[in-house]
Specification:
Rossmann fold; VWF_A; alpha/beta; vWFA_dom_sf; VWA8
Length: about 230
């Protein structure tokens, strides 16, 4: 079964969601007419490109982004999806705005190409902390009081190289009670990602080293919090 469909199944609970486009879409999130806001923060740092041949981290990231875009494209009335990147160049690189989502396959591919190119040509460095803080602040300021807000960070877990404290990052994840923040480590040198997961708040981080695990992890994050 395609990875995209596995993800959508987790969101809607409907295994045949793509069986017939003319069918009535399943109702979920019906308790409020306010759209839930989701901000996907993608690691497009130089290390993502450099170590892609080592563990496929950039390929998995692009695959994850495409799955999320396609899973939410039929639910724009229920969710606001924004996608930004971070690297040594910047803590906030816009890739997709909920106000102007891609309307065809070419526009989706352009987003992925932009991410790949940025990772290939950006300066070295890491802005994970600033990117996470910026995402929390931005989504909070853009949300109305009753709106549910979620930040999902895709990172290559390269914390030790840039002396990022897991304890400090854990505090940041829990810094705003109105924003649910999750980290998905999609790359790792040795066992750093696992060690980071053990150091962060329970249930707020995941390790993904195999493509087959990716839809399960993203489905778990979204279905356990958004629904």
């Amino acid at each position: 079964m395609p990875l995209r469909i596995l993800l959508v199944d987790g969101l809607t609970g409907e295994k045949a969601v793509y069986r017939k486009r003319g069918e009535k879409e399943p109702e979920f999130g019906h308790s409020s007419n306010v759209r839930k806001s989701i901000r996907l923060v993608v690691d497009v740092s130089g290390s993502m490109y450099r170590f892609n041949g080592y563990d496929g981290r950039l390929d998995r990231t692009l695959e994850a982004v495409l799955m999320v875009i396609e899973a939410f494209e039929s639910y724009s009335m229920k969710f606001k999806l924004d996608i930004v990147g971070h690297s040594g160049d910047s803590a906030e690189i816009p890739f997709l705005s909920s106000e102007s989502p891609p309307v065809n396959e070419k526009e989706k591919m352009d987003i992925l190409k932009s991410m790949h190119a940025h990772s290939q040509f950006c300066w070295s460095g890491d802005n994970t902390l600033k990117a996470t803080a910026t995402a929390i602040s931005t989504i909070r300021s853009d949300s109305v009081p009753s709106q549910e807000s979620y930040v999902i960070i895709l990172s290559d877990a390269n914390f030790s190289r840039y002396r990022i404290s897991p304890v400090e990052y854990g505090r940041l994840i829990l810094s705003d009670p109105h924003v649910n923040v999750f980290a998905v480590f999609i790359g790792s040198l040795d066992d750093e990602a696992t060690r980071l997961q053990d150091s962060l708040p329970a249930g707020r981080s995941f390790v993904c080293m195999n493509n087959s695990d990716l839809p399960i992890i993203i489905r778990q994050v979204l279905s356990s919090s958004v629904i």
